[in-house]
Amino acid sequence: MNHRAHLHSVYLPKSVSGTPYLWFDSLQGVESINGLFEYKLIVKAKDEHGNPAHGIEGLEGYVSFEAYHGSIIHPKEATPHQDTISYQSVASHLDLTALIGTPLGISLDLNDKHPIDDRTITGQVTRHGIITGCAKLTTHNRHAVYELTLSPWTYLLTKTNNYHIHQHKSIPQIIEEVLSCYPYPWQFELTHDYPKQDYQTQYDESDHAFITRLMSEHGISFYFEHTKDNHTLIITDHVSHLKRHANPFYDTLTLNLPNQRMPEYAEYLEHFTPKSRLTCAQSLLSDYQFKAPNEPLMAHDTIKGVQTDTHKPHQALIHHLQRYEWHQGRRAGGDELATKNEQLTAAYRHQSLSATAHGRLKGIQVAHLFTLTGHPHQSMNTDWVVYALQMSIKPIDEDNNTHQYYTADTSFTAYPATHPLVPTTPCPRPPARTQTATVVAPEGEEIHTDQYGRIKVKFHWDKPTLAQRHLVDNRTGDDKDDLSQINTCYLRVASTWAGDYYGHIALPRAGQEVIIDFFGGNPDMPYVAGSLTNPNNMPLYTLPHEKVLSGIRSKEYGGDKSNQLIMDDTKDKLQTHLKSDHLHTEINLGHIRRLTTPQGRGEYRGEGFEVRTDGHGVIRADKGMVITTHGRQGAVGHVKDVGEAVARLQTMIDQHSLLLEQAVEALCELRPHR
User: Fold this and answer.
1) The 549-553 sheet, strands edge to edge
2) In what residue span(s) does the Putative type VI secretion system Rhs element associated Vgr domain sit (predicted)?
3) Is residue 436 within 8 Å of 460, Cβ to Cβ?
4) Cys-Cys with 62: which of 91, 356, 431, 586 at CB 3.0–4.6 Å?
5) Is 118 exposed, middle or buried (0-12, 13-18, 19+ CB in 10 A)?
6) Coil, helix or strand for 359?
7) How far is Cα 59 from Cα 3, in angstroms, rounded to an integer?
8) Is 491 buried (19+), middle (13-18) or exposed (0-12) by CB count in 10 A?
């Protein structure tokens, strides 16, 4: 029996006699900081009777079908009749699909001595994960060979997809909200402060892609701590939170001299190769915030650890290599922009120096520190962090079931412990494309806005489904002004013209369908680009019959009346209609027909112009007024030219003078009055 390797799970299949079918054979896999580990566990289904592989027809050396169901028949006790029975091997026909999604732990005892300094190596190598795959590989000697795939519990997060808006929450709060939906262990080990974000969207991405993107954008890393019974997700932002290897042998790794002969089971570090890379020397970030349009938002930093001699032309060029990024409103202000810039420079610094290593190491762990000794370059003999590893643990003697030894083939990547702990590879942000949403407002309000003319909308994909155009609003008192309590997005509205207290404004109202676009395709930066009609919001007039009508019609706030400016483009019957429903006050110009909503054009009422109201009418002009019936076809001449009136008055004066002369000649003034 193998006492050096153990499988820990209450879900593993057992025979009726209580003997586990599955036994550890080998393990290989990869694991890294900011990555999902994957281990391939090779297990064997063992013969508990010690029969040869093909001892009995159909049995093939495994537990019989009858034994599995309680009628245990040892092959040596089988009757002649039973010898003719075609048995089915349970162990070689295990259905392991029931193990999918169940936890499994692995522990491998260490009990060795270092071949060079005779140090005792004790403890356990542990790995734990969720079984996410299984396969039967082959039959070998007295065993059926199976493969189990182990992944972290966060692998479950990759099988989701969601759209969700998070408002006025810090990044740790958002991560906590997502992870709280899963019954597995995790914990924060954070040093930095994280301000609340106005708006963060999980947009067409899995829970895993969403939280790892947030962590990548804000300089947060993650890894897993293993025990034989569990594995815990650790979320951290500083190297000081990383632990050293608990095993003294792995806490200080000595680089062995090359070409030394070692026992196959020995633990030792064989190669450690530092690598330096060319990277940019400077980082520059720029941003824009609409609330502070005149405030320049820039952050500049120099990559620490990039050594250049500016007096040498080729190194002077390297010294001026700069990475410039434009963020288009993604940062709340200069402080947040500077923090992001520091994270970027830290990531570039990681690229400048790393190390690859190889050895026969079973117990090396990701996200743990160790001290290197014995390297010929003294500067390398310092503290390092294991960032990623690739491991293979295999038995030395496959047929030795009592005193089995295992050998390991392990490669890993390490960074100096003085380097900041930040994600080195940015996670892509899903591109957002043009879509529509519904305008919303608190109950009882039709127009809901702020000092910038922003409005609130509800995306069609946002859960729960929008049942009404208004949101329930139970706020009272001062809380009525707290727009953040309305659980929906708050957007700027694009306009054809926007100036300093001039331009065009027409705020979309509750229930309207609006077009949503995104600055730079960023799902965290939506804005209202226009409006659309639908069966709940039909066009101004009945179409296509009234297709010649165009114009603007508003609606009374909280009522049904309106103001409107309508133009009728019917051939040879043009009309302009300006109306306020209050007291039916209107101006009609041109070919006058009655216009009603939504019917459109009605009966003919005449030509020319009409100014009418059911209330009072006033015409007042301080410098004079001209009202005349003298027509000017085609509207020629100056508007204040009153030549026709002057000519008429002159004619009247001439006639008056002529009559006066005739009266004088007739001595009319000498005639007695009657």
Assistant:
1) 549-553, 563-568, 575-580, 585-596, 600-612
2) 555-662
3) yes
4) 91
5) exposed
6) strand
7) 27
8) buried
pLDDT mean for each 10 residues of the chain (674 residues):
75 82 92 97 73 38 41 40 46 84 93 65 91 88 86 97 91 96 96 90 95 94 97 96 91 82 76 86 78 74 56 62 73 69 74 89 94 93 96 79 76 93 86 94 91 93 53 45 58 93 94 95 94 94 94 93 96 96 96 92 94 95 89 84 87 90 80 64
**The pLDDT of residue 57:** 38
Q: What are phi and psi of 578, to 5 degrees?
A: -120, 125
What's the pLDDT score for residue 80? Answer: 44
Q: Token pair for residue 451? A: 């000092």
The pLDDT value given to residue 2: 42
**What is the predicted pLDDT for the residue at 119?**
67
pLDDT of residue 176: 96
CB atoms within 10 A of CB 584: 11
Residue that has been written with the tokens 């610094």 in this structure: 349
Q: Does domain 436-532 have CATH number 3.30.230.70?
A: no
Per the rule left: phi > 0, alpha: psi between -120 and 50, beta: everything else, 322 is beta
User: Kind of pairing, strands 383-395 and 322-326?
Assistant: unpaired
Q: Cα(232)–Cα(389) distance, rounded to whole angstroms? A: 18
Distance CA 543, CA 567 (A): 15
Element (H, E) at 211: helix 207-217
- Ordered by start, the domain boundaries in the chain are 282-351, 436-532, 538-674
Q: What's this model's pTM, rounded to 2 decimal places?
A: 0.82
Tokens 């070692």 belong to residue:
262
CA angle, residues 385, 391, 395, in degrees to nearest 5: 140
556: β partners:
none
Whether 221 contacts 421, CB under 8 Å: yes
663 membership: H or E segment, kind and range: helix 643-665
Alpha carbons 488 and 469: distance in angstroms, whole number: 12
Cβ count near 450 (within 10 Å): 11
Residue closest to 515 by CA, chosen among 429, 450, 455, 451: 455
Name residues whose C-beta falls within 8 Å of residue 555's C-beta, 6 or more positions apart in sequence.
509, 561, 562
CA angle 383-384-385, nearest 5°?
A: 135
**pLDDT value of residue 263:** 65
CA distances to 289, 532, 636, 638, 654 from 647, rounded to whole Å, are: 66, 57, 17, 16, 10
Q: Which residue has the tokens 């502070």?
A: 292
- Asked whether the beta carbons of 325 and 217 are under 8 A apart, the reply is no
> Which tokens sit at 223?
């890894």
430, with CB counted inside 10 A (0-12, 13-18, 19+), is middle
